[in-house]
Structure formats: structure tokens, C-alpha cells
Amino acid sequence: MSAPQDPGFQAPPPPPTPEAEPQAPRPTKLRPIAIGVFVLGLVFVVGGIAKFLAGGIGTGAALCFFGILVFALSFIRLPLVGEEERPLSWFEKITGIFYEPSRVFRNLRAYPLWIGAFLTIWVLTTIYSTAFIQRITPEKIVDHTIEKVSQMGPPFAPPPERLETMRTDQMDALKNPVQRVGAVFKSAVGIFVFGCIAAGLTLLGVLVFGGRMNWWQSLAVTFYALVPVVVIQKVLGLVILYLKSPDDLHPILNQETTLQDNLGILVSPANHPVLFVMASFIGITSFYGLWLRARGLHYGATRVSKGTGWAVAITLWVLLLIVVMTFTALFPSFIS
After folding, report:
1. Less Cβ crowding at N or C end of the chain, within 10 Å?
2. Residues 322/315, Cβ–Cβ less than 8 Å
3. pTM recorded for the entire structure
4. What average pLDDT does range 103-119 have in this prediction?
5. Residue 257 contacts by C-beta under 8 Å, 6 or more apart in sequence?
6. CA gap 307, 322 in Å, rounded
7. Is the N-terminal amide bond of 155 cis, ω within 30° of 0?
8. Could you tell me what percent of the chain has a pLDDT over 70?
């Protein structure tokens, strides 16, 4: 026989279920921008096909890719970090990155807003590039480029008739106002893609070294660590551009900046191109950018020590050096 049940007996309550970890939001505000850029790209493509927008197909394809990429990235969740302070404004971050970078990167950890830095880099790059082309003249840039392409030798050098076509196309690209606008848009796409690749490699390096970092933190740190270097190179480069004679400027080497603050000034690029590239990586702005990147990883990531930040920054610096040295070894004539 079973024991009689106590009428006052109550079953114990079930154990409390653990609360689900809150999920961070996605940056959905980027999607209207991505769609707008994609539509603008379609307009350029249609204009290029209809032949009323010179170079529209290439510009439109780049903008469409840009829109698709931004839309895809908008599905990556933002970091879940305690909001210890208010988000800094664009002006506070752009100025603060020079004299209080730790505060800026710490703020980016909770609010990884990167668009302000991206636009700053894009605008300065566009201003310098436009001034460089006007100062050097399109004829000198195209003549030098075609000459160096013809010196590459087989199998890289195209036939003579192809060289003349390239000369005509490049001259039109530098003189046609519509193509110049297209080049500005393609420059924005290139800067963003470069930032995404650098952010991806940075994130991978952080994970390899045992740290923790969100994608948007990595992208924001990448762009804001570049801002001081770009400002110094472009602003001082503009000053030097108009102080020096155009005959003393290199049509290829000085396309990014005329500032020479590295050991490359001690080596002849024509006689020792690879050694020149190695020496060019040893300079004031190079080490300043390396320090900013390491500091940004330490303060801008969820969990990255100072040692990990330096290890990742130096690894990326070495990888970039290897890539540039490889390209220079394959095509040494371009920097002669």
C-alpha cells in the first residue's frame, strides 16, 4: 500500500531559469545609406551604358559594390558595453585624437562610430589628389605612367597600340570633369574597402592573441588611428606641394603626399627600389600611426592588453611592408 499523502504538501517551485543574455542591436541606420548609394551606382551604370556619363560603368559598379557591402555589414551586431559616458561628437573625436587619444578610443569602445573619421580621410585625400593633379599636370602624370608601363617587359607590358589607348583613356580620366567626379566616388569606395580589410585583419589578430573585439570597434579604431597620420601627411603635403617646383616632384611617389619624414630620403629609389621601400617605412608618421593603432586596440577593444595591442599593430605593419616590397620587386621601374 502507498503511504497516505499529506493534504498540505506543496511541490517545490522549479529552479529559476537563467535570464537570456541581451542581444546588442544592429546598425540598421546604415541600410538607407547603403540603398541610396546602390541606387546612385545604378544611375551611373545606366548613364555609362547610354554613353552620356563618361566612365559611368566603372564608377557605378564601384558604388553598387559599396552599397551592397555596407548593407551586408549592417547585419553585424554592435558591441554590448556599459555606457559609462556620453558619445563624443565628431569634432571632439577629431581634435581629441591628437591630444587625448585614450579618451577617444575608450569612447569608441562603447560607441564605435566610424563615419566621421572615414569622411575626414576621404575629404582630405580628395583635396590633396585634386591639387596634385593640377600642380603636376595630367600630361606629366600620364606620360610618366605610360613610360613605366612600357618598361615592365613581357609578359606585363602591353603592345604599343594598347599603350596609346591607355594614354588616351588616362588623359580623359584626368581631364574630363565627369570622370574626375567618378574618381572621387571610387576613392571613397577604395578607402572604405581598405578600412574593412584592415579592420578584418586587426580583428583576426586580436582573436589569435587571445583578446576580444567587436567588428565595429575594430573598424572605428582603424579609421580613427589613421586620421592624425592622414591630416599630417595631406596638410603638410599640400604646403610642400606649392613650395617646391613641379619638376622636383615625382608623378607616382608623391601622389599620396610630398612629406618626406622617413629614411627613404637616404636611398635612391632608382638604384635600390626595395631598400627604398624598407627605409620609407621607418619614419615619424609611420611610428606615430603604429603607436596610435596599438593604443587604439588597447582602449577601444572589449578586452585587449597593451602587449596584445602592440603585437597586432606590429604584425599588420610587417604584413603591409611585405606586400609593398613584393610589388616593388615585381615592378621596380614605377618608383624610379
Report:
1. N
2. no
3. 0.88
4. 94
5. 128, 233, 234, 236, 237
6. 23
7. yes
8. 90
